[in-house]
Design goal:
By secondary structure, this protein is mainly alpha-helical. It has helices at 2-14, 41-44, 51-62, 71-77, 82-94, 171-181, 211-222, 224-227, 235-250, 255-263, 273-283, 327-339; strands spanning 98-104, 110-116, 308-310, 317-319. A two-stranded antiparallel ribbon has the order 1-2. The protein has a two-stranded antiparallel ribbon with strand order 3-4. The chain starts with a helix and ends with a helix.
């Protein structure tokens, strides 16, 4: 078996076009015909994701619709532990590949569903509906004029009828007749230009814009042009966008994660980088990290039960936090002391 594989490998290397590289990996690409999943280089070569996170992203992407991808379900399917799986899922969620969406079921119950997107940056691109080209209209064939019909014979004049009231035409029938012969207009309905537009979402703001947060946010925005020259911002743009970046930093987002979310896969013709950054800072804002108390199961309140005690006077059982006499013995003992 090893000999056959070595022979097949040498034959595949000999069929590669061009000279082989002197160092590095040599790719032998055989097209898949079944059981394959397309994975983009933005995921396979993602600089901000660990190898474990990229591997689980590929595995989740290869699963069919409706497959459970929770931590317990993935741990039962694969050999990695729950802690490693949870860390990988958090990385994918921070970079937009994994989202948790709240959905209302037909019975009215609201559930949280996990959504995986194989290319999250494509969701930010404007989608334009494809328009079908108008079909060329062919003129009707030219026909020879029809011969004129012969004039009908004139009937004999009838006796004059008594005069009657003039009959008015039916307005509704004429209206229907006009619509019947009018050309049909199949143009789509265009809404009025004065229709109210939904308000634009506001830029996220931190709970407390400290001097340290503002300094880190302005430094991150000013440094974007080193990684992507098309994101060269003015001082005014940096002052407007700094609170939104501070909100990301306040939610424990790593600066490399913020930089990748803002500059990854920009449009070819980027005329207004500040508007694109404002949109991404608003739409891709990650949720706050849960605290230690949020990750623990809620505890039931303890019910305090008053214990039973044995009466020192009549040996009868009664409930009391401390030993002593029952209610009847206390009353009788009080009457005795009052009489004495």
């Amino acid at each position: 078996m090893d000999t056959q594989q070595s022979t097949a490998l040498l034959r595949a290397l000999a069929e590669l076009p061009g000279p082989l590289p002197a160092r590095g990996v040599i790719q032998i690409v055989i097209p898949h015909t079944d059981r394959f999943t397309v994975v983009g280089n933005h995921l396979a070569q993602h600089a901000g994701l660990s190898t474990v996170a990229v591997g689980f992203a590929v595995r989740i992407q290869s699963l069919p619709q409706g497959t459970e991808i929770g931590i317990k379900a993935l741990a039962a399917r694969f050999r990695e532990g729950e802690k490693l799986i949870a860390t990988a899922l958090r990385e994918l969620e921070a970079h937009g590949y994994l989202r948790r969406a709240r959905t209302r079921l037909p019975n009215g119950r609201i559930v949280t569903r996990t959504v995986f997107c194989n290319q999250p940056t494509a969701l930010l691109r404007p989608r334009v509906a494809a328009q079908r080209p108008a079909e060329p209209q062919t003129p009707p064939p030219v026909q020879d004029p029809a011969p004129e019909p012969p004039e009908p014979e004139r009937p004999a004049p009838e006796p004059a009828a008594p005069p009657q009231a003039p009959v008015l035409p039916d307005v509704q029938q004429e209206h229907e007749h006009e619509h019947e012969h009018a050309p049909q207009d199949h143009a789509p309905f265009v809404p009025h230009s004065t229709a109210p537009k939904p308000p634009r979402p506001l830029l996220p703001q931190p709970r407390e814009l400290t001097a340290e947060l503002y300094r880190a946010a302005t430094a991150l925005l000013s440094d974007l042009r080193r990684h992507a020259p098309q994101f060269t911002l003015s001082e005014n743009d940096i002052r407007q966008l700094a609170p939104a970046v501070a909100a990301w930093l306040e939610r424990d987002a790593h600066p490399d994660t913020i930089r990748h979310a803002l500059t990854n896969d920009p449009p070819k013709l980027l005329r207004h980088p500040a508007k694109l950054l404002k949109h991404r800072l608003t739409v891709l804002l990650p949720p706050p990290l849960p605290g230690a108390d949020d990750l623990t199961a809620p505890t039931r309140p303890r019910v305090v039960v008053t214990p039973f005690q044995t009466c020192d006077g009549c040996e009868r059982a009664f409930r009391s936090p401390t030993p002593g006499r029952c209610r009847d013995c206390r009353a009788e003992h009080g009457h005795t002391q009052a009489a004495a």
